[in-house]
Fold these 2 entries.
Entry 1:
Amino acid sequence: MAEVSVRDLEVSFGHLKVLKSLNVTANDGEFLVLLGPSGCGKSTLLNAIAGLLDISGGQVWIGGRNVTWEEPKDRGIGMVFQSYALYPRMTAEGNLAFGLRMAGVARDEIARRVAKAAALLQIEPLLKRRPAELSGGQRQRVAIGRALVRDVGVFLFDEPLSNLDAKLRGELRVEIKKLHTELGSTMVYVTHDQIEALTLADRIAVMNGGVIQQLATPKEIYRRPVNRFVAGFVGSPSMNFVSGTVSGDGIVLADGQRVGLAGYEFAALPGEGRRAVLGIRPEQIDIRPAADGTAGMKLAVSVVEPMGADTLVWTNAGSDAVSVRVGPDASFAPGQVLDVSFQPAVASLFDAESGARL
Ligand code: ADP
Ligand code: MG
């Protein structure tokens, strides 16, 4: 069993309290992604799990053991960093074997593990090359291989794809997902890239300011964000936010139009006149007038962006910008006013002040 659990974790750097009483668990075999903007404490949390920094409070449990005071090498983890941190003078094979040699693992066991990792990562033809003779993507495969040979149940990744170009990043992302399926090990993966999080994770922990905002499946995070921060951080282009005030079972926008929200499941019943923000994703808006069960809005077109597979139409509702994702053949002109509609059940409503889901 290789569950990873962090309990009431506190980490400070001097006077800066980065993590305050943080709790999170990655279940055995789970792919857990820590997602958040730069500086929110993702690496700090991962390094605390790995034992690479001093914590000021709380506990770290791995595989049912309290490892809070154990050395990184004794925690049963393999770690992959953004910078590959390979030894430049050693071949790929030497890099894979080095840690095992230092740990006194028998020669034929090292050979067996290196061969297995090399096969999994398809780097057998590269084993005799030095890092300088490898591309960025190949180097990162070797770095992943170096974690794999440790034969552990838990892998920690800190933005392993951030140094690669977009195409390689996409390819290696798929490889990492395959690897997780094949190994069935527990993976905790740090990224600021919401696409990586959505594609890789069993569950995502969205972090901001050292605090986990929401811990849920990618689908739940995308469909029912618990607050405006999560809503805006996940999804590209971002969820649209339209300001207004609550009126009956709907919301009156700044430009005076009323949008009925019958069918929306309120998380908390807002009072009449409460300032609120309607959140609606670009692909949830249909360019057709409201009919039974849908809510209607008028949007004025400002810019049209053809993107190949689809087209983004940028519009305004009062002073709020609203993007709408439509098919590739749609043609709209700036200035045109569109009657659009959406299903209230798929929308989000947030409190204007606290940002909490209403
Ligand atoms: P992330 O990985 O989410 O980008 P980090 O965990 O690296 O964020 O950093 C969280 C906060 O802690 C940031 O404000 C960062 O400046 C600070 N920090 C991280 N490491 C140190 C350190 N060694 N000394 C002082 N401050 C640090
Ligand atoms: Mg980081």
Entry 2:
Amino acid sequence: MSKFSLFLSIFLAGSLLVHAQSDNGVLRMDEFRSSKKRDNIIIPDVGGYHTLKCDFHMHTMFSDGLVWPTVRVQEAWQEGLDVMAITDHIEYQPHSKDVIVNHNRPWELAKDMAAENNIIFIKGTEITRATPPGHFNALFIGDASGYVEEREDNSKDKEAISKAVEQDAFIFWNHPGWKVSQIEGSYEWVDFVDELYKERSVHGIEVFNGFGFHKKALDWCVDHNLTVMGTTDVHNVIGYDYNLGEIVHRTMTLVFAKERTEESVREALEAGRTVAWASKYIAGKEEHVENLFNACVEVSPAFHSKNDRRYFEVTNNSDLYFEMNLKEGDGTAGIVLFPRSKQVITAGADQQNLTYEVGNAFIRSDKNLIVDIPLK
Ligand code: ZN
């Protein structure tokens, strides 16, 4: 190749590249997609319902977050979410000298990109009252303007929530154990929440917020039939807060929905069909945690026997993690089922089943899921 033709081909290649990058926004998004890998989080459907991966609590520059709304969509796409909500604070706007306050703007800026990437994007906001009672997320809202803007005056708490109630929002209480060490009595079933509960104006509670496990919230959800939620409440770039690896993924709510639609997500949230997932932990109402476990884990018929013991293979067909400790029966004392992995257990020749406690699956603050493994 002559020096001239080498120059020409470099020049041509360079100009093609410039041309591709200077085209419209759709092409830029296509390039983003082709250069990034979207995670495919494997969690089987449960009992005829679609298992949707959802994060209903995140922030942008439009309140105290550090990223633009469209970046939240890119992160959600890359991490395999089905459903997301941006929930910027109404009453807390620390960037207001740099970003014009407009509570509807995050939704407007990100909704097209979410639609183009097959992400169900729910309009939401965070009602940010002084603690207690603290913060509440409202999902499926209409206009986000016209809410109470003043934060510290607890006498306006009811008025602040009532705007979301008027909009028929799905409302959940955020991180109830937040500031537990600073404000005595804050981590309780406070009167204000009790009043909302009696009026059916609060519908769920965050059991996981980021890496925080609010254990009392799980008991409150079970005892009051409220929906168990798990969210990131992410403020920074997601990859900075979460070292996304095999076990550490972004915190989320698994929603068991009839269809992969916004209406079905809402129906499932109202019916309480959720399990919250953070790090290696899952938490939820017993029925849902149990169904989820059974959908993920299967046990083979005995594949070997020796010295009066039978051998079985246990398969985890999911990205969840299970830590199983024997409670009853003559069998292997404990196994860890890593995501998408197999393990071997052995049992006495006459053993019909083995009972295990799943140490990382919570159905109350002090109670783990108990499973019976039938042996064939
Ligand atoms: Zn928040």
